[in-house]
Write a structure and sequence with these properties.
Number of domains: 4
Number of helices: 18
CATH superfamily of the largest domain: P-loop containing nucleotide triphosphate hydrolases
CATH topology of the largest domain: Rossmann fold
Helix content: 40-55%
CATH class of the largest domain: Alpha Beta
C-alpha cells in the first residue's frame, strides 16, 4: 500500500512550499493547491487521506472549502490553519467538521504530529484497517496512548487483531525505531517460558550450553508484547510482577540484575476480572498490566471492516504476475453475512482458499469455503455442527479433535472445573490443558469456569 497522501492548500507560494517540504520530510506523500477551487479539482482527480488548509485565502476561503469537502467526502479529515485564531472561530470550525485547528506560527513538529494523529488508521499493508466507526475510535485511542509509556492490556476474541493493535501502538510511540518483541505465553512449554522471558547464563540448566538474552533484554529500549498473558502459570506471574515493579531482570543462573527500559503490552482473549476472581491470575499483576485497557470488538461487530480486510488479503495473497481478482456482489454479501467465530484469522483462511479455487477474475460466493462451526455443549459434551456434517470418514481429523474436546469437557465436569485435577486425569500438563482450552474457546465451545 502506498504512503498516506496529504493535500496542502495555501495561497502563499513560499509558505506552501515550506509546508510541503515539512510533510515530505515526515515520510508522507504531498499534493499542493493554491486555493480552495484548485483543491476541489485535486480531490476530484486524486483521492487523499487528509487536507491541511489555510483559512484566509482569496476566492474560496478555508471555511468554505471545509464545507465543500464535508458535503462531498464527510469522512475526509480537514485541518485548518490561521494567523487570526480565536477560541470562537476554532469552535465554529470544529462544529463545521474540522478535525483540528492550528494557529500560526507553529513548529513543524506540531504540524506533523497533528497530521499523524488524524490520518485514517491504515498505515501500511500490515497495519490496522479501520473503516468501521468502532475500529476507528479504538485506533484513535491507541494512537493517543502510544504517545505515553503506559502499560496497555488489549483484550478481545482470538484472531480479532490484538497483536496488530499492539504493533500500531509501538509504531506511533517514541520507541518506534527500537525493537518490537512478541512472545506467546501459551505457545511455549511452561518449563521454558521463564528462560525465554528472562534469559539464562551458561550452565543454568541442562542444555544451557551458552548464555542467552531473554525477551526483556531483546526488547531493550523498545516494546515487549506478552501475548495471551492469561495462560501464564501463577508461579511465573509472581516473577513477572517483580520484574515489572523493579524494572530490572536477572537471568536464570545469573547474579547481576540488568536494568530495563522496556514498555510492556499484553493481550488476552479472556475476561481477566473473572480470571482474577477464580484465582487463576494474580490481582496485583492484573492491575500492573491493566493501566490502560483497550477492548477490540470481534469482526462480526465491525461489519464495515470486513470487505476492506478481504481486499487487503486478496492483494497480499494474489500470486505475483497475476491480475488482481475482485469480489462479486454475491461474494461480498456472503462475507458480510457470515458470523466469523474465528475473526480476522478465519477471514484470512477463507480468502486464501478462494484464491486457490478461483477460476477467472472474479471471486464468486461459491468460491468462499467457510469453516463448519462446531459447538460443544458444556452440559452434554456432544458435538453439534452448525452446518451439514461431512460424510463419515471424510474428515477423520475433525472427528478426533471433537472427541478430544469431549474428553477434556468430561474431565473438567468430573473435577468440578479444576484445571489441575483435569490435567492430571488427562495425563497432560496444566499448561497444555490451558492451551487446548484456549483453542476450544476460539471455536465457540463453552468451557466450564
Amino acid at each position: 500500500m502506498s504512503e498516506p497522501l496529504v493535500l496542502i492548500v495555501e495561497d502563499d507560494a513560499s509558505l506552501r512550499e515550506a509546508l510541503c517540504a515539512t510533510v515530505e520530510l515526515a515520510g508522507l506523500g504531498v499534493l499542493a493547491a493554491g486555493g480552495g477551487e484548485q483543491a476541489l479539482q485535486c480531490l476530484e482527480q486524486q483521492p487523499v487521506d487528509l487536507v491541511v488548509s489555510d483559512v484566509q485565502m482569496g476566492g474560496m476561503d478555508g471555511h468554505a472549502l471545509l464545507r465543500a469537502v464535508k458535503s462531498r467526502q464527510p469522512e475526509l479529515p480537514v485541518l485548518l490553519m490561521t494567523a487570526y485564531g480565536t477560541i470562537e472561530k476554532a469552535v465554529q470550525a470544529m462544529h463545521a467538521g474540522a478535525a483540528d485547528y492550528l494557529v500560526k506560527p507553529f513548529d513543524a513538529e506540531v504540524l506533523v504530529e497533528m497530521i499523524r494523529r488524524h490520518l485514517p488508521a491504515v498505515d501500511s499493508d500490515e497495519g490496522v484497517v479501520a473503516e468501521d466507526p468502532v475500529t476507528r475510535k479504538l485506533a484513535s485511542v491507541a494512537r493517543r496512548v502510544a504517545a505515553t509509556d503506559a502499560t496497555v492490556m488489549i483484550s478481545g476474541e482470538s484472531g480479532s487483531g490484538k497483536e496488530v493493535f499492539a504493533r500500531l501502538i509501538h509504531q506511533h510511540s517514541a520507541r518506534a525505531q527500537a525493537p518490537f518483541v512478541a512472545i506467546n505465553c501459551a505457545a511455549i512449554p511452561e518449563n521454558m517460558l521463564e528462560a525465554s522471558l528472562f534469559g539464562y547464563e551458561k550452565g543454568a540448566f541442562t542444555g544451557a550450553y551458552q548464555s542467552r538474552a531473554g525477551k526483556f533484554e531483546q526488547a531493550q529500549g523498545g516494546t515487549l508484547l506478552l501475548d495471551e498473558i492469561s495462560e501464564m502459570d501463577l508461579g511465573l506471574q509472581a516473577k513477572l510482577l517483580r520484574v515489572l515493579q523493579e524494572r530490572e531482570v536477572e537471568r536464570l543462573g545469573g547474579r547481576e540484575p540488568i536494568a530495563l527500559d522496556v514498555r510492556v503490552l499484553a493481550t488476552t482473549n479472556r475476561n481477566m476480572r473473572e480470571e482474577v476472581a477464580a484465582g487463576r491470575f494474580r490481582e496485583d499483576l492484573f492491575y500492573r498490566l491493566n493501566v490502560f485497557p483497550l477492548h477490540l470488538a470481534p469482526l462480526r461487530e465491525r461489519k464495515a471492516d470486513i470487505l476492506p480486510l478481504a481486499n487487503r488479503l486478496i492483494r497480499r495473497y494474489c500470486p505475483e504476475g497475476r491480475s488482481l481478482p475482485h469480489l462479486s456482489k454475491a461474494a461480498q454479501q456472503a462475507l458480510l453475512d457470515h458470523h466469523w467465530p474465528g475473526n480476522v484469522r478465519e477471514l484470512d483462511n477463507v480468502i486464501q482458499r478462494a484464491l486457490i479455487l478461483l477460476n477467472g477474475q472474479q471471486i464468486e460466493a461459491q468460491d468462499l469455503c467457510f469453516e463448519p462451526a462446531p459447538a460443544i455443549s458444556a452440559e452434554t459434551g456432544r458435538t453439534q455442527s452448525l452446518e451439514t456434517a461431512a460424510p463419515a470418514g471424510e474428515d477423520l481429523g475433525s472427528d478426533l479433535k471433537s472427541r478430544e474436546f469431549e474428553l477434556i469437557l468430561e474431565a473438567l465436569r468430573s473435577n468440578h472445573g479444576s484445571r489441575k485435577a483435569a490435567a492430571e486425569r488427562l495425563g497432560i500438563s496444566p499448561r497444555t490443558l490451558r492451551y487446548k482450552l484456549a483453542r476450544m474457546r476460539e471455536q465457540g465451545i463453552v468451557v466450564p469456569a
